[in-house]
Specification:
2 domains; binds flavin-adenine dinucleotide; D-Amino Acid Oxidase, Chain A, domain 2; FAD/NAD(P)-binding domain
Length: 350
């Protein structure tokens, strides 16, 4: 595994993708600096709900409809990675997810499609669904899958950074700029939706998608499955809930909009009537490619610069898969199905 010994890598961006990639490369023997100009979690990764949700992302998000095999394989990367982190498997909540459709026909149609991804998925009656989630007012029967997991972004970032430091990585509290070469052989750009510090042919492939999410610290299910309905999800977090999320394509400002907050509050309270008290709204910016899958691999403009960005609304889920592709490409190994799907050159070929 130590075949990157002697390689000096600078990773720009300490969100989910940069942090997992930095740790993975360190474990392959590289000397790694992880640089960020912002504080821990002051990015999309810190704001996210942390769902590792191959089943319902493929079922509910049209852009991800064909990506189930990739998303499901990526989720398995978390089982291994969590094992190697402080706090280990307690970082992962395997309670699954529940979906309430807009009507009965929608429920049956989605149940049929979900069964192709997850033969164990099932329709639960309202009372059964309510038994899984404290305070839930089920609007009718719900569709359940145990395939979807969740992690807590703040705790997971902290665990990743702790492991990175303990294992010999170094942090730089600064922005990486176009003069990045200072001592490094390779630059990994995990800069999320921010402008890449180096002009590359792939720069124009990423578009921002603004997302609002509400954090309830003292109300909400606290544990159990993520509960989804058209246009909203309620993710249990310790002692409360996160209610998300808007998808505002083309927007990269982090201004909190009262209208977006009101819509999320109302949708969340439809499912959990106790979600009416005070909440903390947050905004994060996702970066998206035209096909919804990330860019992971060397840039076509400079073979020493690797891209690790564009995971849209599944950056937590895909982070270990992105990191594995970068590590394989640097080690000269086959990067498999993830490598082909995330190849930064795939848009030029079409
Ligand atoms: C509301 C919301 C909910 C979400 N929910 C989920 C979810 O449930 N599950 C899931 O998988 N995904 C979810 N996502 C998507 C996920 O958050 C992103 O895909 C993921 O966080 C992207 O991680 P990243 O590391 O690429 O980028 P970021 O987390 O944005 O990190 C990029 C970092 O790069 C730093 N940076 C930028 N430029 C430079 C520079 N020049 N030098 C140094 N540092 C730099 C920034 O300061 C930042 O810290 C959600 C997103 C939002 C907004």
């Amino acid at each position: 595994m130590n075949d990157l010994q002697g390689l000096r890598v600078l990773v720009a961006g300490a969100g989910a993708v940069g942090s997992v990639t930095a740790l993975t490369l360190l474990r392959c023997g590289a000397s790694v600096h992880l640089a960020d100009r912002a504080s821990r979690g002051d990015n999309a990764s810190g704001v996210a709900a942390g769902m590792l949700a191959p089943a319902f992302e493929a079922l509910l998000d049209p852009v991800s409809a064909e990506h189930f095999p990739i998303l499901a394989a990526a989720r398995m990367g978390w089982a291994d990675l969590a094992d190697s982190l402080p706090a280990g498997q307690t970082l992962i909540d395997r309670s699954g997810a529940l979906y309430f459709a807009k009507d009965d026909a929608d429920l049956r149609r989605r149940a049929e499609r979900l069964a192709a991804f997850d033969p164990s998925s099932e329709i639960l009656g309202a009372a059964q669904a309510q038994a899984l989630s404290a305070g839930l007012r089920a609007p009718g029967p719900g569709l359940f899958s145990a395939l979807d997991w969740r992690l807590e972004p703040g705790a997971t970032l902290a665990a990743l950074h702790k492991a990175f430091l303990q294992e010999g990585g170094a942090f730089l509290a600064q922005a990486v700029d176009r003069q990045w070469r200072n001592g490094a052989d390779v630059l990994v750009l995990a800069t999320g939706a921010d402008a890449m510090p180096v002009e590359l042919p792939e720069s124009g492939l990423l578009t921002p998608i603004k997302g609002h999410i509400l954090r309830f610290e003292k109300a909400g299910p606290g544990r159990g499955p993520v509960v989804r309905a058209p246009g909203v999800y309620v993710a249990p977090v310790s002692g409360g809930a996160a209610v998300g999320a808007t998808m505002q394509a083309g927007r990269s400002d982090r201004e909190i909009e009262a209208g977006a907050v009101a819509e999320l509050r109302e949708a969340g309270a439809q499912l959990f009537p106790q979600l009416i008290g005070s909440s903390r709204p947050q905004v994060g910016i996702r970066a998206a490619t035209p096909d919804g899958l990330p860019l992971a691999g060397p840039s076509g403009g400079d073979a020493r610069i690797f891209l690790a960005a564009g995971a849209r609304r599944n950056g937590w889920l895909l982070a270990p898969a992105i990191a594995d592709v970068i590590a394989a490409r640097l080690r000269g190994l086959e990067s498999g199905a993830f490598g082909a799907a995330f190849d930064p050159g795939r848009f030029a070929i079409r």
